[in-house]
């Protein structure tokens, strides 16, 4: 199985290879040379979880590696600086190539570091987690957390070459699996055609190593479908200046506020997104936009896969937590200026609702479970 | 006196106002609104030297300010983080406006912080030093120093609105004046028409407060001329991918290596550039490209203004310093990969010489004063 896409993001072609096996180091260099003409010195970036995968990619090649601590709590400037210094020590020039081997955090950090190294070096991503494949690797958003806010600092820097090797999912821990599946469900819901949602229903919730060949193929089709949907949305609105890319934020306004209020890294991104989908459904239903059967279908899909669907979220029932959540929501509001929009599901696809058209206390009442 | 330019840098219009007085806060907001339609929340960024100027701009307006330590040694991530956190505390959203009030360091830091704040916020620069006006403010290069290397990290992020108020030069300390004049001389040398060089010869070397109205006007004309030359070069080659923008690096390969070897902040940027011009002349002469009368004219101009023109530079005669210089030059080589070129003066204008076409030890021999 192999699926290849080329998306044009901000005039930059981004070539995506979804395939069975890990790419080899020689294969990456050959592909990159084919796309960009030349490869300078190379630095591999991974985390403690993906160091073994990076080693497999290298095989007998000896190349400098930068190994970061794993997890969302490592998504800091200290990690970015570690990458930049490793690049400098490895003698990378402006034509140097940063290869990020890992999930969403490694992808975001490596891409950010490459985007500012000597004002922009070369970049390749090997996405090794389900969340990374369906979320971080495609679309050019890079960044890290600062001052308790997710991705307060970042750039737009689409990777020209991205691999998504299914084999790297074999060792994926179940929580990361669940996290990725949350984003996959989100993408399926915002897709107007409903095709991906149908494919997802056929999908088991086991990690890859428990899958038979047919299940593996269904997963492949779902990942490829999700990447295709996201890529086309990003092509249409690369810097989220229009209405198109905003749709990808379905569930994310609630998810980011939950992640911040719970403490970054306490709830995985995809699980927060899954919970955010429930909130988006409740809000859409209260506004008369999301039909009850759609609410129930989404709720059922999430409950079947053991996502937290309770509102208020158990993390927010402790003293002060709901207030922290509302403050974080307010921070998101500022982030998007007067322009905050909630994305809510329709019978098919989604729509955006301006916060101005929602009663000021409706969201808080929903969060309190009073609605 | 007033001169206005609009340069199109990387599809982004950059509007430059060279004028007598400091702009007022209300004036800045009105100008920005005229260009961009709306102004969100605002953060003023300055350093301990320009805090008084920032206060004058604000007048009776109360707005949040971020005051950085002054000087090249503050051109670090810590300063960038201080700006980002101040922006967050001041509640700036994606439409927030960062106003950098200061010389080259404040310009570079504020522009870098704005470029990564929520993946790109709004930016205005009030350039208050001669070096800032003729160098940092125009052209979109942002960055900070890391691992002992100048601007190892940075982005391209042209400011859409830039003020250059002559009045801010009144209190400029003489060393900063000399630093700015070094860049001004460089720009005059690379200009094929020779017009700016003629204007510079008429210019006194006093700080602004010692100038009569005629001297002040000559300075105005020289700054405007320099900004015009740089702006047109940057328009033609915004990201230094072609041969055009490279010309601006006249003297800089040597200057950056001197700054690094001497320790960042030990030699001012413009004085290092002036010394780099001497080196470029010696190299060009050794290669038979720079005529002797041109070498002598540039040397004379620099000596008249008391720049260090001795080769080897006194900073490089201490044990180990020349080796550090050659290593830094090698780092610059890596930065530009196989593509390092030295810019050397011709009878008029300049030309680029590939390092490959220069005997390996020629540069080192010149640096030792053995040539």
Dominant shape of chain A: globular
Please name the two chains that share the biggest interface, counting residues whose Cβ lies under 8 Å from a Cβ on the partner chain.
A-B, 33 and 34 residues
Instruction: Count structural domains of chain A.
Output: 2
Major beta sheet of chain A, specifics?
7 strands, mixed
CATH topology of the largest domain in chain A: Rossmann fold
Sequence of strands across the biggest β-sheet of chain A: 1-2-9-6-5-3-4
Q: What is the CATH architecture term of the largest domain in chain A?
A: 3-Layer(aba) Sandwich
- Cα separation of the termini of chain A: 47 Å
The overall strand count of chain A is 11
What does this structure look like?
2 copies of one chain form a homodimer. Chain A is globular, with a radius of gyration of 20 Å. In chain A, helix 5 packs parallel to helix 8 (213-236), helix 9 crosses helix 10 (269-286) and helix 9 (252-262) crosses helix 12. With 371 residues, chain A is an alpha/beta fold. Chain A has 2 domains: 2-174, Rossmann fold (3-Layer(aba) Sandwich); 250-367, Dehydroquinate synthase-like - alpha domain (Dehydroquinate synthase-like, alpha domain, Up-down Bundle). The first copy, chain A, is built from 13 helices and 11 strands. In chain A, strands 1-2-9-6-5-3-4 form a 7-stranded mixed sheet, sandwiched between helices. The first copy, chain A, has a two-stranded antiparallel sheet with strand order 7-8. In chain A, strands 10-11 form a two-stranded antiparallel ribbon. The interface between A and B is medium-sized, with 33 and 34 residues.
